[in-house]
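Table S7 (text form). Paired inputs.
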Amino acid sequence: MHPTNPQILWVASNNGIYKTTNGGATWLNTQVGDFAQGSLRLKPNNPNTVYAVSNNMFFISTNGGDSFNSVSTGLPQDSGRLLLDVSPANANYVYVLSANTNFSFQGLYQSVNSGTNFVLKSNSPNIFEANQAWYDMALAVSDTDANKVFTGVLNIWTSNNGGSNFTKVNNWYQYNDQFTHADIHYLQYINGVLYCGSDGGLYRSYNDGQLFTDITGNAQISQFYRIATAKNTVAKLAGGTQDNGGYALSNSQWKGYHGGDGMDSGISPLNSNLYYGFTQFGGSLNISSNAGVSTFGNVPSPSGEQGNWITPLRLNSQGDVFSGFSTLYKLQNNNWVEQTLAPNFGQGNIDVIYIDPTNDAIMYVQTKTDYIKVQTEDLIFLY
């Protein structure tokens, strides 16, 4: 939005850059291209200068975004994704963060002359830490110090000298004062405050990343894949959430008791404090014996097996735990034991396990195209 005229706005989209001068009543496409994953910035104190990046090109407008010219001097010619940011601390500074075509870290580039040309500031260490910039990638420059830069993919990294050197701010798996959840999509300074938006919520720092506070609060934004309730009370729940692990409700409080992508869950009918939670592809079964306050152990997937993204997990009335991979497994002594008399389903992984609520001896196992009735009492499997 124009800093003094709210009727003027610019939008970056996968169909180009659009401008409105009448508060959105009509729009004009002023630059073609795919700008959906890039950035759009106004030069501080000069809204006639507009910067934009597509996946692999930098553009500048000096007439308020009515037309654009591309700039390539000093920038890579083979980027897979670009982001840019500016700082009111020095209006002539422009930073561009670039990913390779395989979405690894390519480099941080700086212009000190309003985008006329750029220089590579650094291309190491690997501040992305993974080849996933197609999904999450973030860049922010301090609004009080034009040489203070923050980047984010898995974790947040910072530079105090315009990107010449970087240090890591946090680790997504360490819960401390600097913690932010992994997969960072958004970093921005607003009035001296640094904000981080990630797959785990919204975080705020008043001291340049030395301390982050989770301000997601009571926002109802979790994506639950599956939930389970205790047999004897609705006050105890377990569920798995996208990107944010397994959550457990007990004593009127939600607790995160395991990480990863939380999937199918279960609570023992014999012990309402015994919670089970799968991660993605059935890679780890996490077990809590105190209603989700903590995890006391986890069971890896059976050797050589990878289940579906949501691997089914079911408990019978006696608390026996079953899972479905390419065949049916039962948890015994914290190990998955294949039910060896089970048929070779031959239809890919098991999608659904259903246990007859009136008879533990009867189970229904469904693949993508068929179902099989399993009579477990004498291990006779009926097609």
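Next pair, protein 2 of 2.
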Amino acid sequence: MKNTLLLTLLLGAFTVFGQDYKSIVTVADQHYNNKAYSESVAQYKQAFKLKKNAPGDLYNAACSAALAGDKKLAFEWLNLALKNGWTNVRHLKSDTDLNSLHGSKKWDKLVAAMQKEVDKVEANYDKPLQEELLAIYEDDQGIRRVFIEAQKQYDPKSPQMDSLIRIMLYKDSINLIKVKAILDKHGWVGPEKVGGQANMTLFLVIQHADLPTQQQYLPMMREAVKNNKASGSNLALLEDRVALREGRKQMYGSQIGRDRETGKFYISPLEDPDNVDKRRAEVGLGPLADYVKRWDIVWDVEAYKKQLPEIEEMEKRNNK
């Protein structure tokens, strides 16, 4: 499974032939989601002519290559991902996209090399805390993967979706108790103590929490970003969510709404749409146009400004 975070998309910018790097990667990702793996590989090849040092993209490309039956290319991209800092050996070993590579001497060598790098990095980690956070991470993201797949099969108001929402809310409530205890005791623990994925868990659980909890820990996350213990792009997502919940407009365009009547997605009310990409770039997010493609939204700033009053009314209806 591609190493992505649900509801989180980090985009960069490199231009060639009228296309930028991340736009090409976005298309590759769409092909992967549609199970068009050979087409996905072709897009990644095009993207890597521009840039070939983004570990997450190299890993995802390897997944597409493995699923397309090109084992040689999959290993090439996995080794490049490792060379550029991709060391999530736990995910590597459990990723079903890479099953076709198992049993090969190259696979054993890759796993051993990645584990060696992990052992170096994690020598000074708080291992018990890391394990606790990683377990919470899997709990948080696992139910959301199931939910997203179910959306493709069931009506939003179906008993199946209602049941999944209840399960997700229950898991979120348990995870929140655990994460609040960690934050209150340790503060916002940085990746240097627990690793990147475990560190990300803190943001994910708070992002899915109630408004009072988000308001309580938002200042802590702001301080963590200043101290390089949290991601500025993730903070932007939390800032947007809190702003909308408080009745204000979001600043980065990260929050997407869905009209209950038509089922169409829209960008929730946005402050100063003309300069949104400038603000997104400042926190490490790519262009809004690329981000909203996954919801089949076409970003047109002039059209959006005209539609904004209608969007604000739609948001009010949806939140009743």
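DSSP finds 15 helices and four strands in the chain.
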